[in-house]
Amino acid sequence: MSRRDVIVHAAAPWRTQLMGVLAEAGWRPLALGEFTDLPGERRQDVHVGVVRLGRADDAEIDALDELMASRPEIEWVALVPTAALPNPRVGRFLRHRCFDFHTLPIDTPHFLATLGHAEGKARLPSGGAAGCEAEGCCGMIGHSPAMRDLYAAIRKASAVEAPVMISGESGTGKELVARAIHQLSPRRDGPFIAVNCAALPANLIQAELFGHEKGAFTGAYQRKIGRLEAAAGGTIFLDEIGDLPLEMQVTLLHVLQDKVIERLGSNREIRLDVRVIAASHVELEQAVADAHFRADLYYRINVIRLRTPALRDREEDVERLARAYLERFLPESRGGVRGFSRQALTVMANYEWPGNVRELINRVRQAVVLSENRLLTPRDLGLEKRVSSEGFMTLEEARSRAEHDTIRRALRRNQNNVAAAARQLGISRATLYRLLVRVSHAGAAVHPEFPHAVSMAGRAD
Ligand SMILES: Nc1ncnc2c1ncn2[C@@H]1O[C@H](COP(=O)(O)OP(=O)(O)OP(=O)(O)O)[C@@H](O)[C@H]1O
Fold it and tell me: 173 CB less than 6 Å from ligand 1?
Protein backbone atom coordinates (compact mmCIF):
# COMPACT_ATOMS: atom_id res chain seq x y z
CA MET A 1 0.00 0.00 0.00
CA SER A 2 1.34 3.46 -0.85
CA ARG A 3 2.47 5.65 2.00
CA ARG A 4 0.17 8.45 3.08
CA ASP A 5 1.56 11.87 3.84
CA VAL A 6 1.25 13.45 7.25
CA ILE A 7 2.51 16.86 8.32
CA VAL A 8 4.47 16.84 11.55
CA HIS A 9 4.71 20.06 13.49
CA ALA A 10 6.79 19.72 16.63
CA ALA A 11 9.90 21.23 18.17
CA ALA A 12 13.21 19.56 17.31
CA PRO A 13 13.66 17.04 20.11
CA TRP A 14 10.18 15.58 19.60
CA ARG A 15 9.94 15.96 15.84
CA THR A 16 12.53 13.27 15.06
CA GLN A 17 10.95 10.84 17.50
CA LEU A 18 7.45 11.47 16.12
CA MET A 19 8.59 11.15 12.52
CA GLY A 20 10.25 7.85 13.41
CA VAL A 21 7.04 6.47 14.95
CA LEU A 22 5.00 7.56 11.94
CA ALA A 23 7.46 6.26 9.34
CA GLU A 24 7.56 2.90 11.08
CA ALA A 25 3.76 2.73 10.92
CA GLY A 26 3.77 3.27 7.14
CA TRP A 27 3.16 7.01 6.96
CA ARG A 28 5.35 9.49 5.05
CA PRO A 29 6.01 12.23 7.62
CA LEU A 30 6.68 15.72 6.29
CA ALA A 31 8.06 18.53 8.42
CA LEU A 32 6.03 21.72 7.94
CA GLY A 33 8.73 23.25 5.72
CA GLU A 34 8.78 20.16 3.47
CA PHE A 35 5.01 20.33 3.13
CA THR A 36 5.07 24.05 2.26
CA ASP A 37 7.73 23.37 -0.40
CA LEU A 38 5.58 20.76 -2.16
CA PRO A 39 4.12 21.77 -5.51
CA GLY A 40 0.47 22.90 -5.20
CA GLU A 41 -1.09 19.74 -6.68
CA ARG A 42 1.02 17.48 -4.42
CA ARG A 43 -0.03 19.48 -1.37
CA GLN A 44 -3.64 18.55 -2.08
CA ASP A 45 -2.75 14.91 -1.41
CA VAL A 46 -1.95 15.75 2.19
CA HIS A 47 -4.97 15.40 4.42
CA VAL A 48 -3.71 15.15 7.99
CA GLY A 49 -1.24 16.74 10.35
CA VAL A 50 0.10 16.04 13.81
CA VAL A 51 0.99 18.87 16.10
CA ARG A 52 2.89 18.41 19.35
CA LEU A 53 2.27 21.24 21.80
CA GLY A 54 5.33 22.38 23.74
CA ARG A 55 4.88 25.21 26.21
CA ALA A 56 1.20 25.51 25.24
CA ASP A 57 1.41 29.23 26.02
CA ASP A 58 -0.38 32.05 24.18
CA ALA A 59 2.44 32.59 21.70
CA GLU A 60 2.44 28.93 20.69
CA ILE A 61 -1.36 28.71 20.45
CA ASP A 62 -1.46 31.94 18.41
CA ALA A 63 1.08 30.51 15.96
CA LEU A 64 -0.80 27.20 15.69
CA ASP A 65 -4.13 28.98 15.28
CA GLU A 66 -2.65 30.91 12.40
CA LEU A 67 -1.19 27.79 10.81
CA MET A 68 -4.42 25.82 11.06
CA ALA A 69 -6.62 28.68 9.90
CA SER A 70 -4.45 28.88 6.80
CA ARG A 71 -4.81 25.10 6.16
CA PRO A 72 -8.48 24.43 6.88
CA GLU A 73 -8.52 21.37 4.62
CA ILE A 74 -6.16 19.47 6.93
CA GLU A 75 -7.50 17.42 9.86
CA TRP A 76 -5.12 17.85 12.82
CA VAL A 77 -4.39 15.51 15.68
CA ALA A 78 -2.75 17.22 18.66
CA LEU A 79 -0.40 15.75 21.24
CA VAL A 80 -0.74 17.70 24.46
CA PRO A 81 1.09 17.68 27.79
CA THR A 82 -1.54 16.71 30.39
CA ALA A 83 -0.64 19.76 32.46
CA ALA A 84 -1.81 22.04 29.63
CA LEU A 85 -5.36 20.67 29.51
CA PRO A 86 -6.88 22.89 32.23
CA ASN A 87 -5.77 25.98 30.28
CA PRO A 88 -9.01 27.34 28.71
CA ARG A 89 -7.17 28.60 25.63
CA VAL A 90 -5.75 25.16 25.01
CA GLY A 91 -9.24 23.70 25.47
CA ARG A 92 -10.71 26.13 22.95
CA PHE A 93 -7.89 25.42 20.53
CA LEU A 94 -8.40 21.64 20.76
CA ARG A 95 -12.16 21.95 20.37
CA HIS A 96 -12.14 24.30 17.41
CA ARG A 97 -9.02 23.43 15.50
CA CYS A 98 -8.33 19.75 16.00
CA PHE A 99 -9.93 16.52 14.89
CA ASP A 100 -8.81 14.92 18.15
CA PHE A 101 -6.03 15.02 20.73
CA HIS A 102 -3.95 12.67 22.86
CA THR A 103 -2.15 13.39 26.08
CA LEU A 104 1.51 12.57 26.52
CA PRO A 105 3.25 10.17 26.71
CA ILE A 106 1.98 8.81 23.43
CA ASP A 107 -0.06 5.63 23.47
CA THR A 108 1.21 4.71 19.99
CA PRO A 109 -1.47 2.24 18.75
CA HIS A 110 -4.25 4.49 20.00
CA PHE A 111 -2.65 7.59 18.45
CA LEU A 112 -2.12 5.85 15.08
CA ALA A 113 -5.74 4.72 15.04
CA THR A 114 -6.88 8.31 15.62
CA LEU A 115 -4.66 9.53 12.81
CA GLY A 116 -6.18 6.92 10.50
CA HIS A 117 -9.66 8.13 11.42
CA ALA A 118 -8.68 11.74 10.83
CA GLU A 119 -7.38 10.83 7.38
CA GLY A 120 -10.52 8.83 6.62
CA LYS A 121 -12.68 11.76 7.59
CA ALA A 122 -10.66 14.27 5.60
CA ARG A 123 -10.99 12.07 2.51
CA LEU A 124 -14.76 11.64 2.79
CA PRO A 125 -16.55 13.41 -0.04
CA SER A 126 -18.57 15.12 2.66
CA GLY A 127 -15.53 16.28 4.56
CA GLY A 128 -12.68 16.67 2.16
CA ALA A 129 -11.86 19.01 -0.65
CA ALA A 130 -14.27 17.30 -3.01
CA GLY A 131 -17.32 17.98 -0.87
CA CYS A 132 -19.21 21.04 0.16
CA GLU A 133 -17.55 21.08 3.53
CA ALA A 134 -14.27 22.37 2.22
CA GLU A 135 -13.42 25.97 2.87
CA GLY A 136 -14.21 28.00 -0.20
CA CYS A 137 -16.64 25.48 -1.68
CA CYS A 138 -19.37 27.56 -3.24
CA GLY A 139 -17.87 30.44 -1.26
CA MET A 140 -19.05 29.02 2.07
CA ILE A 141 -16.83 29.23 5.11
CA GLY A 142 -17.40 27.52 8.45
CA HIS A 143 -16.75 24.19 10.11
CA SER A 144 -19.07 24.51 13.11
CA PRO A 145 -21.50 21.65 13.77
CA ALA A 146 -24.36 23.88 12.55
CA MET A 147 -22.55 24.53 9.26
CA ARG A 148 -21.63 20.87 8.85
CA ASP A 149 -25.31 19.99 9.22
CA LEU A 150 -26.12 22.64 6.65
CA TYR A 151 -23.55 21.24 4.19
CA ALA A 152 -25.06 17.78 4.62
CA ALA A 153 -28.53 19.20 3.93
CA ILE A 154 -27.22 21.08 0.88
CA ARG A 155 -25.74 17.89 -0.55
CA LYS A 156 -29.00 16.01 -0.05
CA ALA A 157 -31.06 18.84 -1.50
CA SER A 158 -28.77 19.09 -4.53
CA ALA A 159 -29.31 15.44 -5.39
CA VAL A 160 -33.08 15.79 -5.88
CA GLU A 161 -35.35 18.09 -7.87
CA ALA A 162 -37.84 19.08 -5.16
CA PRO A 163 -38.38 22.76 -4.31
CA VAL A 164 -36.35 24.08 -1.40
CA MET A 165 -37.28 26.65 1.19
CA ILE A 166 -34.40 28.37 3.00
CA SER A 167 -35.11 30.33 6.14
CA GLY A 168 -32.69 32.24 8.31
CA GLU A 169 -31.86 35.71 9.51
CA SER A 170 -30.67 38.36 7.11
CA GLY A 171 -27.01 38.05 6.16
CA THR A 172 -26.68 34.38 7.14
CA GLY A 173 -25.95 33.22 3.59
CA LYS A 174 -29.30 32.09 2.21
CA GLU A 175 -28.38 33.09 -1.32
CA LEU A 176 -25.02 31.37 -0.94
CA VAL A 177 -26.82 28.18 0.08
CA ALA A 178 -29.13 28.42 -2.93
CA ARG A 179 -26.09 28.83 -5.22
CA ALA A 180 -24.39 25.87 -3.55
CA ILE A 181 -27.42 23.63 -4.13
CA HIS A 182 -27.44 24.70 -7.76
CA GLN A 183 -23.70 24.21 -8.22
CA LEU A 184 -23.77 20.74 -6.73
CA SER A 185 -26.90 19.68 -8.64
CA PRO A 186 -27.12 18.15 -12.12
CA ARG A 187 -28.39 21.59 -13.22
CA ARG A 188 -25.01 23.20 -12.52
CA ASP A 189 -24.36 23.91 -16.21
CA GLY A 190 -27.66 25.75 -16.50
CA PRO A 191 -28.30 29.32 -15.30
CA PHE A 192 -28.78 30.38 -11.69
CA ILE A 193 -31.12 33.36 -11.60
CA ALA A 194 -31.65 35.22 -8.33
CA VAL A 195 -34.72 37.42 -7.92
CA ASN A 196 -35.26 39.57 -4.86
CA CYS A 197 -39.05 39.66 -4.64
CA ALA A 198 -38.91 42.47 -2.06
CA ALA A 199 -36.97 44.72 -4.42
CA LEU A 200 -39.35 44.44 -7.40
CA PRO A 201 -41.99 47.17 -7.74
CA ALA A 202 -45.45 45.54 -7.50
CA ASN A 203 -46.48 46.72 -10.99
CA LEU A 204 -43.39 45.18 -12.59
CA ILE A 205 -43.21 41.82 -10.85
CA GLN A 206 -45.32 39.95 -13.35
CA ALA A 207 -43.43 41.30 -16.35
CA GLU A 208 -40.09 40.61 -14.63
CA LEU A 209 -40.94 37.03 -13.79
CA PHE A 210 -42.90 36.03 -16.89
CA GLY A 211 -41.59 38.41 -19.53
CA HIS A 212 -43.73 40.19 -22.10
CA GLU A 213 -44.33 40.52 -25.81
CA LYS A 214 -43.76 43.75 -27.69
CA GLY A 215 -46.74 46.08 -27.13
CA ALA A 216 -48.12 44.02 -24.20
CA PHE A 217 -48.48 47.24 -22.19
CA THR A 218 -47.52 50.89 -22.51
CA GLY A 219 -43.75 51.04 -22.56
CA ALA A 220 -43.27 47.44 -23.72
CA TYR A 221 -41.30 48.48 -26.82
CA GLN A 222 -39.81 45.08 -27.38
CA ARG A 223 -40.18 41.48 -26.32
CA LYS A 224 -38.56 40.66 -23.00
CA ILE A 225 -37.73 37.24 -21.61
CA GLY A 226 -38.82 36.91 -17.98
CA ARG A 227 -36.57 35.62 -15.18
CA LEU A 228 -38.39 32.28 -15.00
CA GLU A 229 -37.81 31.67 -18.68
CA ALA A 230 -34.20 32.87 -18.37
CA ALA A 231 -33.65 30.21 -15.71
CA ALA A 232 -34.68 27.38 -18.07
CA GLY A 233 -32.53 24.32 -17.52
CA GLY A 234 -31.25 25.80 -14.26
CA THR A 235 -32.46 27.18 -10.94
CA ILE A 236 -34.45 30.24 -9.97
CA PHE A 237 -33.86 31.66 -6.50
CA LEU A 238 -36.84 33.63 -5.21
CA ASP A 239 -35.44 35.62 -2.29
CA GLU A 240 -37.88 37.19 0.20
CA ILE A 241 -40.74 35.22 -1.33
CA GLY A 242 -42.92 36.35 1.59
CA ASP A 243 -43.02 39.80 -0.04
CA LEU A 244 -44.75 38.59 -3.22
CA PRO A 245 -48.20 40.17 -3.56
CA LEU A 246 -51.03 37.67 -3.06
CA GLU A 247 -52.16 37.74 -6.70
CA MET A 248 -48.62 36.89 -7.83
CA GLN A 249 -48.59 34.04 -5.36
CA VAL A 250 -51.57 32.51 -7.18
CA THR A 251 -49.83 32.83 -10.54
CA LEU A 252 -46.61 31.37 -9.19
CA LEU A 253 -48.50 28.45 -7.70
CA HIS A 254 -49.97 27.64 -11.12
CA VAL A 255 -46.53 27.83 -12.70
CA LEU A 256 -45.14 25.41 -10.14
CA GLN A 257 -48.09 23.03 -10.63
CA ASP A 258 -48.36 23.12 -14.41
CA LYS A 259 -44.72 23.92 -15.27
CA VAL A 260 -45.78 26.30 -18.04
CA ILE A 261 -45.73 30.08 -18.34
CA GLU A 262 -47.19 32.63 -20.71
CA ARG A 263 -45.46 35.92 -21.43
CA LEU A 264 -47.63 39.00 -20.88
CA GLY A 265 -49.41 39.84 -24.12
CA SER A 266 -49.21 36.28 -25.41
CA ASN A 267 -51.29 33.18 -24.87
CA ARG A 268 -48.63 30.79 -26.09
CA GLU A 269 -47.64 28.39 -23.35
CA ILE A 270 -43.94 27.91 -22.79
CA ARG A 271 -42.85 24.76 -21.02
CA LEU A 272 -40.63 25.44 -18.08
CA ASP A 273 -37.82 23.30 -16.80
CA VAL A 274 -36.75 25.24 -13.74
CA ARG A 275 -35.96 24.29 -10.19
CA VAL A 276 -37.32 26.67 -7.58
CA ILE A 277 -35.46 27.60 -4.43
CA ALA A 278 -37.14 30.19 -2.23
CA ALA A 279 -35.96 32.06 0.84
CA SER A 280 -37.40 34.26 3.51
CA HIS A 281 -35.95 35.98 6.54
CA VAL A 282 -39.37 36.00 8.19
CA GLU A 283 -41.10 32.81 9.30
CA LEU A 284 -43.65 32.06 6.59
CA GLU A 285 -45.82 30.00 8.95
CA GLN A 286 -46.79 33.23 10.67
CA ALA A 287 -47.45 34.93 7.31
CA VAL A 288 -49.71 31.99 6.41
CA ALA A 289 -51.50 32.26 9.76
CA ASP A 290 -51.96 36.00 9.15
CA ALA A 291 -53.28 35.29 5.62
CA HIS A 292 -50.42 37.24 4.02
CA PHE A 293 -49.05 34.15 2.35
CA ARG A 294 -51.07 31.45 0.61
CA ALA A 295 -50.99 28.14 2.43
CA ASP A 296 -51.11 26.16 -0.86
CA LEU A 297 -48.01 27.97 -2.20
CA TYR A 298 -46.30 27.55 1.14
CA TYR A 299 -46.76 23.76 1.04
CA ARG A 300 -45.71 23.67 -2.59
CA ILE A 301 -42.34 25.35 -1.99
CA ASN A 302 -41.69 24.04 1.48
CA VAL A 303 -40.80 20.50 0.42
CA ILE A 304 -37.18 20.55 1.56
CA ARG A 305 -36.53 22.95 4.38
CA LEU A 306 -33.12 24.39 5.22
CA ARG A 307 -32.18 26.90 7.88
CA THR A 308 -29.04 29.02 7.84
CA PRO A 309 -27.69 29.41 11.38
CA ALA A 310 -27.17 32.84 12.90
CA LEU A 311 -23.51 33.74 13.32
CA ARG A 312 -23.87 34.14 17.10
CA ASP A 313 -24.84 30.45 17.25
CA ARG A 314 -21.57 29.37 15.65
CA GLU A 315 -18.95 31.29 17.52
CA GLU A 316 -16.26 28.89 16.32
CA ASP A 317 -16.70 30.10 12.72
CA VAL A 318 -16.25 33.78 13.47
CA GLU A 319 -12.46 33.76 13.42
CA ARG A 320 -12.31 31.70 10.25
CA LEU A 321 -14.69 34.04 8.47
CA ALA A 322 -12.89 37.11 9.76
CA ARG A 323 -9.49 35.82 8.62
CA ALA A 324 -10.81 34.76 5.23
CA TYR A 325 -12.36 38.15 4.57
CA LEU A 326 -9.33 39.96 5.97
CA GLU A 327 -7.23 38.09 3.42
CA ARG A 328 -9.67 39.03 0.66
CA PHE A 329 -9.59 42.75 1.50
CA LEU A 330 -5.87 43.04 2.23
CA PRO A 331 -5.13 44.51 -1.21
CA GLU A 332 -7.33 47.47 -0.16
CA SER A 333 -5.17 48.20 2.90
CA ARG A 334 -2.98 51.27 2.69
CA GLY A 335 -1.23 50.45 5.92
CA GLY A 336 0.51 47.24 6.84
CA VAL A 337 -2.45 45.32 8.25
CA ARG A 338 -1.37 41.76 9.05
CA GLY A 339 -4.09 40.29 11.20
CA PHE A 340 -6.27 40.74 14.26
CA SER A 341 -5.17 41.55 17.78
CA ARG A 342 -6.10 38.87 20.29
CA GLN A 343 -8.51 41.26 21.94
CA ALA A 344 -10.24 41.83 18.60
CA LEU A 345 -10.63 38.07 18.16
CA THR A 346 -12.08 37.72 21.66
CA VAL A 347 -14.49 40.60 21.12
CA MET A 348 -15.61 39.23 17.76
CA ALA A 349 -16.16 35.76 19.22
CA ASN A 350 -18.44 37.23 21.89
CA TYR A 351 -20.31 39.77 19.79
CA GLU A 352 -23.92 38.92 18.81
CA TRP A 353 -23.61 39.88 15.11
CA PRO A 354 -27.18 41.05 14.50
CA GLY A 355 -26.31 41.51 10.81
CA ASN A 356 -24.60 38.10 10.69
CA VAL A 357 -21.90 37.39 8.09
CA ARG A 358 -22.77 40.47 6.06
CA GLU A 359 -22.04 42.65 9.10
CA LEU A 360 -18.78 40.83 9.78
CA ILE A 361 -17.66 41.38 6.19
CA ASN A 362 -18.47 45.08 6.38
CA ARG A 363 -16.68 45.56 9.69
CA VAL A 364 -13.56 43.73 8.53
CA ARG A 365 -13.48 45.60 5.25
CA GLN A 366 -13.88 48.98 6.90
CA ALA A 367 -11.13 48.11 9.39
CA VAL A 368 -8.74 46.94 6.67
CA VAL A 369 -9.29 50.05 4.58
CA LEU A 370 -9.12 52.62 7.37
CA SER A 371 -6.78 51.20 9.98
CA GLU A 372 -3.10 51.91 10.12
CA ASN A 373 -2.53 49.24 12.78
CA ARG A 374 -0.65 46.07 12.00
CA LEU A 375 -3.09 44.07 14.08
CA LEU A 376 -6.71 45.22 13.87
CA THR A 377 -8.17 46.26 17.22
CA PRO A 378 -11.76 46.19 18.52
CA ARG A 379 -11.80 49.96 17.85
CA ASP A 380 -10.86 49.39 14.18
CA LEU A 381 -13.82 47.02 13.93
CA GLY A 382 -16.15 49.50 15.62
CA LEU A 383 -16.53 47.09 18.55
CA GLU A 384 -14.54 48.94 21.21
CA LYS A 385 -17.57 49.40 23.46
CA ARG A 386 -17.83 45.64 23.73
CA VAL A 387 -14.47 45.42 25.43
CA SER A 388 -15.46 47.00 28.67
CA SER A 389 -19.23 46.64 28.71
CA GLU A 390 -19.65 42.89 28.65
CA GLY A 391 -17.15 41.70 31.22
CA PHE A 392 -15.75 38.80 29.23
CA MET A 393 -12.09 39.85 29.22
CA THR A 394 -9.64 37.29 30.44
CA LEU A 395 -7.50 38.28 33.39
CA GLU A 396 -4.54 38.63 31.08
CA GLU A 397 -6.49 40.90 28.74
CA ALA A 398 -7.70 43.00 31.68
CA ARG A 399 -4.10 43.33 32.89
CA SER A 400 -2.76 44.35 29.53
CA ARG A 401 -5.58 46.82 29.05
CA ALA A 402 -4.85 48.38 32.44
CA GLU A 403 -1.15 48.56 31.52
CA HIS A 404 -2.00 50.13 28.21
CA ASP A 405 -4.32 52.71 29.76
CA THR A 406 -1.80 53.67 32.44
CA ILE A 407 0.97 54.15 29.90
CA ARG A 408 -1.30 56.16 27.66
CA ARG A 409 -2.33 58.44 30.52
CA ALA A 410 1.29 58.96 31.58
CA LEU A 411 2.28 59.88 28.03
CA ARG A 412 -0.63 62.24 27.70
CA ARG A 413 0.17 63.95 31.01
CA ASN A 414 3.77 64.38 29.86
CA GLN A 415 3.01 65.55 26.31
CA ASN A 416 4.38 62.30 24.87
CA ASN A 417 7.76 62.77 26.49
CA VAL A 418 8.88 59.18 27.01
CA ALA A 419 11.60 59.98 29.58
CA ALA A 420 9.22 62.00 31.75
CA ALA A 421 6.43 59.41 31.43
CA ALA A 422 8.86 56.62 32.37
CA ARG A 423 9.96 58.55 35.44
CA GLN A 424 6.39 59.02 36.52
CA LEU A 425 5.60 55.34 35.98
CA GLY A 426 8.63 54.35 38.02
CA ILE A 427 10.29 52.42 35.22
CA SER A 428 13.31 53.01 33.02
CA ARG A 429 13.04 54.65 29.62
CA ALA A 430 14.17 51.39 28.00
CA THR A 431 11.42 49.43 29.79
CA LEU A 432 8.80 51.92 28.66
CA TYR A 433 10.02 51.61 25.06
CA ARG A 434 9.79 47.83 25.36
CA LEU A 435 6.23 48.08 26.71
CA LEU A 436 5.29 50.49 23.94
CA VAL A 437 6.48 48.04 21.33
CA ARG A 438 4.52 45.24 23.02
CA VAL A 439 1.23 47.12 23.21
CA SER A 440 1.59 48.35 19.66
CA HIS A 441 2.09 44.72 18.56
CA ALA A 442 -1.06 43.83 20.48
CA GLY A 443 -2.87 46.19 18.19
CA ALA A 444 -2.96 49.54 19.97
CA ALA A 445 -0.11 51.99 19.76
CA VAL A 446 -0.02 54.49 22.55
CA HIS A 447 2.73 56.68 21.25
CA PRO A 448 3.15 58.45 17.93
CA GLU A 449 6.74 57.26 17.61
CA PHE A 450 5.42 53.75 17.03
CA PRO A 451 4.30 53.63 13.46
CA HIS A 452 2.49 50.28 13.60
CA ALA A 453 -0.69 51.83 14.76
CA VAL A 454 -2.58 55.05 15.12
CA SER A 455 -1.64 56.90 18.26
CA MET A 456 -4.36 56.64 20.82
CA ALA A 457 -2.78 59.37 22.90
CA GLY A 458 -5.24 61.96 21.71
CA ARG A 459 -8.34 59.79 21.62
CA ALA A 460 -11.12 59.75 24.13
CA ASP A 461 -12.18 56.27 25.14
N1 LIG B 1 -20.79 30.79 5.37
C2 LIG B 1 -20.37 31.85 4.68
N3 LIG B 1 -19.11 31.90 4.24
C4 LIG B 1 -18.65 32.98 3.56
N5 LIG B 1 -19.38 34.05 3.25
C6 LIG B 1 -20.67 34.05 3.65
C7 LIG B 1 -21.22 32.96 4.39
N8 LIG B 1 -22.51 33.24 4.64
C9 LIG B 1 -22.76 34.45 4.09
N10 LIG B 1 -21.66 34.92 3.49
C11 LIG B 1 -21.53 36.22 2.80
O12 LIG B 1 -22.35 37.15 3.53
C13 LIG B 1 -23.05 38.00 2.65
C14 LIG B 1 -24.53 37.85 2.87
O15 LIG B 1 -24.91 36.55 2.40
P16 LIG B 1 -26.30 36.31 1.64
O17 LIG B 1 -26.62 37.46 0.75
O18 LIG B 1 -26.26 34.96 1.03
O19 LIG B 1 -27.25 36.35 2.91
P20 LIG B 1 -28.84 36.23 2.97
O21 LIG B 1 -29.15 35.36 4.11
O22 LIG B 1 -29.36 35.84 1.62
O23 LIG B 1 -29.22 37.73 3.32
P24 LIG B 1 -30.62 38.49 3.05
O25 LIG B 1 -31.68 37.75 3.83
O26 LIG B 1 -30.35 39.84 3.61
O27 LIG B 1 -30.84 38.47 1.58
C28 LIG B 1 -22.61 37.63 1.25
O29 LIG B 1 -21.53 38.47 0.87
C30 LIG B 1 -22.11 36.20 1.39
O31 LIG B 1 -21.12 35.90 0.43
Answer: yes
pTM of the model: 0.60
Establish how many alpha carbons lie within 13 A of residue 150's alpha carbon, considering only the half-sphere containing its beta carbon.
27
Query: What's the CA-to-centroid distance between 330 and ligand 1, angstroms?
Result: 20
Buried b (16+ CB within 10 A) or exposed e, 147-166: bbebbebbbebbeeeebbbb
What's CA 228's distance to the chain center, in Å?
31
Q: Is 140 in the pocket of ligand 1 (CB under 6 A)?
A: yes
Query: Cis omega (within 30 of 0) on the bond before 451?
Result: no
Distance 417 CA to ligand 1 centre (A): 48
- Candidates 144, 57, 129, 37; CA nearest to 97 is 144
Residue 323: which H helix or E strand, with range?
A: helix 315-329
Which whole number is the average pLDDT over 306-318? 91
Ligand 1 centroid to residue 148 C-alpha, Å: 16
Residue nearest to atom 8 of ligand 1 (CA): 173
Phi-psi category of residue 233: left, alpha or beta, with phi > 0 → left and psi -120 to 50 → alpha: left
ipTM value greater than 0.95:
yes
Distance CA 371, CA 440 (A): 13
